[in-house]
Design a protein that fits this description.
The protein is an alpha/beta fold and 478 residues long. Helices cover 45% and strands 14% of the residues. It has 18 helices and 11 strands. Strands 1, 2, 3, 4, 5, 6, 7, 8 and 11 form a 9-stranded mixed β-sheet that branches. A hairpin with a 5-residue loop joins β6 and β7.
């Protein structure tokens, strides 16, 4: 079964490729020189001087990562000296409850490798105990519940979307499996509201032994609700809506009434009941508002009208923000959380980004409550060159970044893996690029413009990327 994720991502890429045009912003520092008779030097530096200032600052202040490959672990433990190159992160993150690890494309092998290693460090050294993916809340919850009897590959495929089923991501799930047998587990989670097929299989097995009819009705409803997301039949959906609502309401009642017995089935996830009820609430919200908006979007796209589609993106991100907030404050109030998602979802003020298919939309990062924003550090990942893959696994070349773009500035560090903190900086000649609009490439293809410091707290540039080494097979359809 195909969930709505691939559809959104595929439409997103198609639309963005269609509407994204080269932003023609005036180059920084192109101010008229003072041509007074005394021939004084220009009051404002030339573009070239700005570039030199930026390059000099990057070379002096950026951090070089020694490597990005995940570290070998034994029973969830990694030798401390393996993370010396990441020690600069400790003072930046010491008071942060949430660390967001972004990516400007889902299809870069080096992004996944680097994020797995960063997660290992954050867990081993800084006490981050939860990894929450841009994937189904229910799927991650179920995968954690079943983890005792699952291989790392099975857990990966049951928990997260297929865009990350790769040899580069797999070591994270091996590491998670190891830590779950220790007194310092890394807990797997998700915050997306979209449907992934393995979840209905889990519920059918879990609930079916007690009420086979209800479990079957739930699985059928999951399939039907996913199918409606591709539909253009508003009248047909209006007829199906009450029946779907009744199925999910019945399941919610059953779970509440049998909570103690159901919880005992999967002790590995002590929050399984709360998470299941949250998923059911998400589904009810999807039935009530989101699916109808999605059908309107399908009809509008045939007329090249993207506004209804943008509304579905906004609605999805609003629900993801609510889910992540719920995880942070209700389920894991005393734990620190790592968030894995696309740059578009995690950045701090997407509504201010220019020349994007999502310009003007308040997405997940922007929709988080202020109290959690104050406890967050947002890291955007970018690449300078190489090859990536789209959500269908098809490879494409990274477009060469323009001179003065975000990627070009970070490239001046001269290292394969460059990290720059931009949260704790003041506007000076060497850092002015952080405080003014810069061009950058979403998916390594489409130009957009934003003020870096308004969107991210830190930036990680991988100089050269490659398409992931995918691991195909059974798991969560997208």
């Amino acid at each position: 079964m195909h969930s709505h994720h691939l559809k959104l991502k595929t439409i997103k890429t198609t639309i963005a490729l269609t509407i994204a045009a080269v932003c023609a912003f005036p180059a920084a520092g192109m101010a008229a020189a003072d041509t007074a008779a005394d021939s004084k030097p220009p009051a404002v530096s030339t573009t070239q001087q700005y570039g030199r200032n930026w390059a000099n600052w990057i070379q002096s202040h950026a951090y070089a990562l020694d490597r990005i490959q995940p570290e070998a672990s034994a029973k969830g433990v990694i030798e401390k000296d393996r993370f010396k190159d990441l020690e600069f992160l400790k003072p930046l993150l010491i008071d942060k409850k949430l660390v967001y690890l972004g990516e400007n494309t889902h299809g870069a092998a080096e992004y996944s490798s680097s994020k797995v290693r960063l997660i290992q460090y954050l867990h081993q050294e800084l006490g981050y105990d939860v990894i929450a993916f841009e994937s189904g809340l229910g799927n991650a919850s179920a995968a954690l519940a079943k983890s005792t009897d699952s291989t790392p590959e099975q857990m990966m495929k049951e928990a997260i979307f297929g865009v990350w089923w790769s040899k580069e991501t797999l070591p994270l799930f091996d590491y998670i499996k190891q830590t779950l047998e220790t007194d310092k587990p890394l807990i797997l989670g998700g915050f997306d509201m979209q449907i992934q097929s393995p979840y209905s299989e889990f519920v059918r097995d879990w609930i079916g032994s007690r009420d086979a009819k209800l479990a079957g009705a739930f699985a059928d409803a999951e399939q039907e609700l996913g199918d409606w997301s591709f539909s253009e039949d508003e009248a047909g959906y209006a007829k199906a809506k009450p029946r779907l609502l009744e199925t999910y309401a019945s399941m919610k009642t059953f779970v509440k009434e049998n909570a103690d017995k159901l919880k005992a089935d999967y002790p590995r996830n002590p929050h399984l009941i709360e998470m299941t009820l949250r998923v059911l609430d998400n589904r009810i919200q999807v039935i009530q508002t989101y699916t109808e908006a999605n059908i309107r979007s399908n009809l509008a796209l045939k007329k090249n009208d993207i506004v209804p589609f943008q509304e579905t993106v906004r609605m999805r991100d609003e629900m993801m923000a609510a889910n992540l907030t719920w995880l942070a404050e209700q389920i894991y109030p005393d734990k620190k959380i790592i968030v894995w998602g696309h740059n578009v979802h995690i950045r701090k003020k997407n509504s201010a980004v220019l020349n994007s298919a999502y310009s003007g939309l308040s997405l997940m990062g922007e929709s988080m409550p202020a109290r959690l924003k104050k406890q967050s550090y947002v890291i955007g990942l970018y690449a300078y060159q190489g090859e990536a893959a789209n959500n269908m696994g098809q490879s494409y070349p990274i477009v060469k970044p323009e001179r003065g773009s975000l990627e070009d500035i970070l490239k001046q560090h001269g290292h394969p893996y460059t990290f720059v903190d931009i949260k704790y900086r003041k506007d000076k000649p060497g850092t002015s690029w952080m405080f003014e609009p810069r061009l950058s490439l979403d998916w390594g293809l489409m130009q957009e413009s934003f003020i870096p410091r308004d969107q991210f707290d830190g930036l990680l540039l991988i100089d050269t990327v490659h398409a992931p080494s995918y691991i195909r097979g059974k798991g969560g359809s997208q």
